Amino acid sequence: MRAGAIDRRRLLTAGAATLALTAMPRALGLPAAAAEAMPPKIVIGTLPANTEVTAYLGEIDYFKDEGLAVELLHGADAPAVMQALVGGSIPLGDISVAAAIVATARGLPLLHPALGAIGTPRHPVSRIMVRGDSPIVEVPQLKGKKLALDQRGTLEDLGLAALKKTHGLAREEIEIVLLPAASQPQALAQGQVDAIYALPPVDAIAERRFEARTLINTADFVPYIGYGTLAMRRDFVDAYPGAARKAMTAWLRFCRWIDDHADAARKVSCANLDIGEDLRATVRVAYFARNGLPVMPNLWHIYEMLAAGKALDAASDPGRLFEEAVIEPTRRITLPALDALGWDKDAVVQDMLRASYPLLAKPPEAYYAEWEKKQLAI
After folding, report:
1. Residue where one domain finishes, among candidates 201, 220, 239
2. Pair 259, 288: CB distance under 8 Å
3. Are residues 267 and 361 in the same domain?
4. CA angle 318, 320, 325 (to 5 degrees)
5. Rounded distance, CA 349 to CA 118, Å?
6. Burial readout 58-81 (b: 16 or more C-beta within 10 A, e: otherwise)
7. What is the spatial distance between Cα 173 and Cα 139, in angstroms, rounded to a whole number?
8. Same domain for 108 and 131?
9. In this model, does residue 1 exceed pLDDT 90?
10. Which run of H or E residues covers position 128?
11. pLDDT tens per residue across span 168-179
């Protein structure tokens, strides 16, 4: 599973092609804007990860219930989906928050007014693992050791910056070894690396088939991370505002269904991701935001993670970036969809809004948008 790998060169190449487009609606074959117009089909880019809302599409299909014909474009990795999205061949992408921030910081025409999967203390997603017989029992003992990562630029890679504040271990003190996720459990078992930073289902494979053990969960040093968002091309939203709200309504309904039907949701996603029967009961499933609203302290924290990891040059005005790419489209798309569907009490997101974010310079409430206080008051 990849929770948001970012290949900067490929993203920049795709971005240059996108910025060269002179008529974005025509690039997608879109008609002139019409409030009630509906596209004959919507293609959504998705990744092989159970942090993707679209990984749970099966017999339950809320897009169809909303009158939308949806087709999934299954990308092999995040850059492939991003290239299709920013290049104009698909209008929507179920992508990572980090990738969306990078794209919009590059000036690409994407809106990301949603939040899906969240890693929490009660719903941990990724974890650092060592061999069952490893002498490493505390995080500081990783100093000078080899840690396997799937790719640079993932939230796991970027999150290592927080270890310095929480456990006194700087990311520069760890030797990063890039290994495909599928190869990590065996590499750990054979002693090629000292630890792996694994995500579902690789962590379950390492634990069940190779007797690896957990050294630390990501949630132990970054308690809350919002992983996924539904990114929309701006020209698609302008041409099909009604379809954008319907897609968001389906997203919201999926998030609630996953939370309310954990066993069924795990079964669907494991089948979609071709996860073996022996692992399905132990595969971790994230929590999903019941109201689908972006959590602004999370966005700002991921922005700081990106800057600290040098995956993104600091923006001259990040507040304006979030206003244009997140806050305004949330008012335009997500809030109307949520008002029509009905707000839900979400105790997990309430805790997330009050949580500690190691790399933020200010308290979480300093970053709130107007909807955060309403979520806290439900």
Report:
1. 220
2. yes
3. yes
4. 95
5. 9
6. eebebbeebebebebbebeebbbb
7. 12
8. no
9. no
10. strand 127-130
11. 999 999 999 999
Peptide bond into 201 cis (omega under 30): yes
Q: For 327-367, how does the pLDDT look when each residue is reduced to its tens digit (9 = 90+)?
A: 999 999 999 999 999 999 999 999 999 999 999 999 999 99
CA distance 241 to 33: 8
The number of distinct structural domains making up the chain is 2
- CATH code, domain carrying 92: 3.40.190.10
The DSSP result for 260-289, as a single string, is: H-HHHHHHHHHHHTT--TTTGGG----EE-
Distance separating alpha carbons of residues 45 and 95, to the nearest angstrom = 8
What percentage of the chain has pLDDT greater than the value 90?
Answer: 80
Residue 35 has pLDDT above 60, yes or no: no
DSSP string, 152-206: TTSHHHHHGGGHHHHHS--GGGSEEEE--GGGHHHHHHTTSSSEEEE-TTHHHHH
For residue 227, the 8-state DSSP code is: -
> Greater confidence, 19 or 336?
336
Question: For the chain, what is the radius of gyration of the CA atoms?
Answer: 20
Q: With 0.85 as the threshold, say if the pTM is over it.
A: yes
Is 221 in contact with 155 (CB distance < 8 Å)?
no
At 86 the pLDDT is 86
Tell me, yes or no, whether 3 lies in a domain. no
Q: Are 118 and 289 in contact (CB under 8 A)?
A: yes
Task: Give dist(CA 141, CA 198) in Å, integer.
Answer: 18
